[in-house]
Structures are given as structure tokens and as C-alpha cells.
Amino acid sequence: MPTYDVELIDIVKDFESGGSRVRAVDKVSVKIADGEFFALLGPSGCGKTTTLRLIAGFEQPTAGQVLIRGIAMEGIPAYHRPVNTVFQDYALFPHMTVEQNIMFGLQMEGVGKKEARKRAQEALDMVRLPDIGARKPQQLSGGQQQRVALARALVKRPAVLLLDEPLGALDLKLRVNMQYELKALQRDVGITFIYVTHDQEEAITMADRIAVMKDGEMLQVGAPREIYEHPGTRFVADFIGETNFIPADLIERAPDGSGAVRLSDETVIKAQLSKTLESSSGPVTMAIRPERVGIAKVGDSIDSADSDQTVLDARLVDSQYIGTDTRYTARIADDINLIVRVQNTSEREFSHFTIGQPVKVYWRQSSTTVLDR
Amino acid sequence: MAIPSPLLINEDAMRRNRAVRRLGQVGLWLNPLFAYFFLWAPILVLVLFSFNESRSVASFTGFTLKWYTNILNNVMGAERAFSTEIMLNAFRNSLFVGTIATIIATVLGTLIALAMARGRFPGKSLIDSLLFLPVVIPEITQAISLAIFFKVAFDWIATISGERLFPGFHTIIIAHVTFNISFVAIVVRARLADMNPQLEEAAGDLGANPWRAFWRVTFPLILPGVISGALLAFTLSLDDFVITFFTSGVGTSTLPVFVYGLLKLTVTPEVNAISTIMMVLSTLLIGISLAMQGRNASRG
Hints:
The complex is a heterodimer of chains A (373) and B (300).
Chain A: E1 4-17, E2 20-33, E3 37-41, H1 48-56, E4 63-68, E5 71-72, E6 83-86, H2 98-108, H3 113-126, H4 142-154, E7 160-164, H5 172-189, E8 192-197, H6 200-206, E9 209-214, E10 217-222, H7 224-229, H8 234-239, E11 244-253, E12 258-262, E13 268-272, E14 282-288, E15 294-297, E16 309-322, E17 325-333, E18 336-343, E19 358-364, E20 368-372
Parallel strand pairs in A: 3-8, 3-9, 6-7, 7-8
Antiparallel strand pairs in A: 1-2, 1-4, 4-5, 9-10, 11-12, 11-14, 12-13, 14-20, 15-19, 16-17, 16-19, 17-18
Chain B: H1 6-49, H2 66-72, H3 84-118, H4 124-130, H5 133-136, H6 139-161, H7 169-194, H8 198-205, H9 210-239, H10 242-247, H11 255-265, H12 269-294
Helix pairs in contact in B: 2-12, 3-7, 3-9, 3-11, 7-9, 8-9, 9-12
């Protein structure tokens, strides 16, 4: 039996506000394995931070169970839980030095001053800020404060580290650097990370698994690749990356997960069905990522040996140069525009298209996902 | 025929505009002048005449420090109204009342501020707004209500225990605590509102139970607010006349009450000197209090 560091079982959290009840977390169940980097991803107000606070013990669930290392956390206050938090705005104690901040948690455990000081220095070395122990938090840059907050939490050697949008306040470049560092650090210390973010890119680059949340519900839990390539719902597909949504009618549903849809101009194309698709016929949405679509001039040979390939006639209506890529808009039917994203490689340097020109767009069946509308 | 230039018309309007603006600027410059004159002129007169050679306030005849030295040397005033011994006694009373009332009010006010900022209980918003009442209701109303309250309370105690109580230090102190609690609570509350509530959560997260979280994190961070509130309370207590007058008993006159007693006879120059000293002292205390409040909570 695998061991789980954190298990949430049918967690419900209601908040009273002005006499009315608001459900912040709605029947969330998930098991997070030992040493996993788990991201809670969703827009603001989706319940991701509340879920984190329920694990930390700052909030008590209205219903359901939180288990940490198999132990039910009901009635156990935050200060007795084997978890530590990195807060969104770091919450470093302004009246203490960096060293005192880091030693605080150890002293609460009854660790002696000498030992605490030694471990604080180790923690500072770990986040690569060995010389700032004597400074006050407000004398540090945002990135440094972030690392101190990390050191303060990790020095306690928690079973689980909870991170609430820890990179949210940093500027873009620093944020990207910290993403790599955090991931490397997590691999080194082997502690389970539960990471709250609204930034899909952050979640995809760092997490082992992502839970996409909306309105208090966990819509989909899976590896970044699975979430990106095979979104279970329209919301997930839309929230993570750019997606073409093509309205269609489902006309065939095979037991192996493939099927066929009919577009508004009667074109029938083969498509892959989402595992969680409920409709067996009728209106659906076919999702396809822009980078999964190819574009070619009429007359250019497309590798059609692949029977999986779908090729459609289209007309180019827009072309946008965006540095690494070019983003084309191709009209495949009167009311359907398809975004096509092609990387600007050196071989493609001379393949210019003019707007209004007839083109061909093509993709593989496995690149599509048919979702409930 | 010349075409009327639209530019010319604009220039006229602009000239008018400029004139009005200049007038406004003069007004803006005069305003504070008047305001500060009304604010400070009487005080300046008082300070000036505390250094006046002559006993009369009719004219300034020369500079002297004798009224200040008179306060310290036991010299009887011309009208025999002023006595250093009585004054020093009144001053001691003021310090005594102020110290005790400040300690009690600071503890209670801080506790109320904490309850208001962190607690969740029914009627909180009502209590919250009631807290400001002592700040806004007229002092005389508060004074009379306290005087009546003590009388009723003493009558009640007399019928129950047969022992008659009289107003004295205890009544003044209770009265001072009553109005000072609000000021302390308001100042400490502002400090608490300034403090990131996540700091307390962070302390808990790091293993501190609520008691230790309070003493290690919350209290050090609100301490400047507590000190500031205490200094404010002490100053208000030192300066208070109306409420003290209505709640004091025999032999418990504070300095303001003593000064008022002197004034009933005549304005002696010593009164000017005492008032100046009190003003300097109060300004100093309030200045420290404001400086403490001004310290940013996030910087500790």
C-alpha cells in the first residue's frame, strides 16, 4: 500500500458571510504521495488557498477529513501539525532578525539555542543566503525575503511544506529563476510540497501533479502533460494554455475513446473523446491546441501516409509575428476560425503566406479532445 | 475688415483667470496665518507674561524668571493665594492619579483593542462604536454622570454595609480610567489594524501556541502603540480639570484644580508660569506619543 503524506476526504468548507453561506471548498478528495510536488491551480476565489489553510489548520473543515501521514487532523491545532507554510507575503516577523526568524520555529520545539543557531545557518546556506542572518527582513529584497521564508519553514523539517503563491510578488525574471530553484530544492530535501498558484505555467513547469480547481471543486487531477494534452473539461482546456474550441455535433462514439464529429459546414472529422465526456451524441466542443495544428500552402505535400491526419481547406484571415512563433488565424468554415501556431524555425523562414490566400490546415486525431459543451 | 482673432478673446479670459488665481493664492497664504494666530496668540500671551516683571498683565515691563523661581521657593504670593507647598502637593496628586489611572487604562484598553481586532462575538460592532463615545461626548456630561454615579453607588453601599464612602483618589482614578480606556483602545487598535494578521498565523504555523504567539510576536509589534496610548492617557489625566473637579474630594486636588482655585482670586503670575510648564510637559508627552504611533507597524 502506498503511503500518502496528505489525504483529503470529502472536504467541505462553508463560510458565513453576512448571514449567507458561501461554499469555498466543495467535496474535495485527493491523495498526495510522499515527496510529491503537488500544485493547486485555479483562478482567484476557486478555493485553492482555503484548501491549503485547511491542511495547515488555520481553518476547520465543515465536513470531511484531513489526514496527514495517516493521522486524522480533526481537533489538532496548526501549531501541532507537522506542516509548515510559506505565506504569500512571506509573513516574516519584522521585529526579529533573519536568524531569529528562522530560529523561532525551532525554539518553539524546545531546541536549544546553540543547536537552533547551527540549524538556522544550515537553512540559510541551503537557500544560498549564508551572510544575511543579522539583517532585518525589511532590509532584504523581495526575492531574499522569499528565500528566508522558505528557510524558516524548511528548518522545521516538516512532513509537508505548504506554499501559498510564494512567487506571486516577484517580478517575472526572478520568478522564473525561483521556479527552477524551488523545484531543485524540493528534489534535494524530498519533502512533499503543496503549491498554490493561479499561474498555469508555474504549475506545469514545477509540479508532479496538478489539481485544477474552480468554484471549490477539483475539476481534474493529473500530471501536467495529461492536464495539458487531455483536459477533461472545457474550463480546464481554457484555463491552461491557448485552445481552439470548435463547436461540433458528436455523431460517432467508439468504445476505444475515438469518435467522429460533424462541423457546422457538414464536414465530418475523426476526433479523440475526453475520458470524462458525458454526451453520447449531439452538440459538443472539439478542443485542439494551436501548436498542434499545421498550416501549408495549397499544393504543398502534406505527409498523408498517416491515416490519422485530418486535412481541411481554409482561408488565411490573419497572421501575427510574435517572435519565437507566428500565429495564424485560418477560417475553416463560415463561422469557425482556427488559431494555428507555428514555430519560426530556419527551414520555415521563406514560407510566407499572404492574408486571404487559400491554405490547408492539418492535425492528428490524437491531438484533439472532444468535450461536453 | 479685420477678422476678430479668437486668440485675443482667449487672452482676455486668461488674464481674468490669472487675476482670480492670484487672489486665491493670497487667500491660501492668509488662511493659515489667521488660523494660527487664533490658535497660538492666547498661548503666546500666556507664555510671554509668565516672564513679565510686573504683576499686572496690562503691560510688559521687563524680563524675569522670578515667577518660575517663586514656584520652587516657598514664597507666598502677594495675595497669599499661592503656596509652593500646596502646589507641590497638588502636583504629586496629579502624578499619583495619572500613574495609577494610566496603568489601569492601558491594560484594559489594550485588552479591549485585542478583543475588537481579533475576537468574534455578537454585538462586536456595537461595542466598537460605543468605544468612541467617551471621545465625543462633552466632558461636562461625563463629569456630571460620574458624580451622580458615585453618589448613587455610595448611597447604595451605605445602605448595604452601613459604611459611608466619600470621593477621593479612588473616584478620580476610576473617572480617569473611564475616559482614558477609549483613547488607549483606539490607539492600540490602529496599531493592530496596521499589523499583518498573517504574522500570528505564521507564529502558530511554526509551532507557537496562542499564548507564546502573543508574547513573542503580537505584543512586541503593538508595544509602540501601547506606549503611545499610555503616554496619551497620562497626558490627558494630567491635564484634566472638569472630570477631576466633579469627582475629587477634600485634599485630593490635582494641579489643574489647584490652578483653578488660584484663578478664583486673581491671575497671579505664578499661574502663568505653572501653565507654561504644564503646556511644555504635555506637548512633550504628546509629541513622544505621536512619534511612537507614527512608527510603521510593519517595520517593528
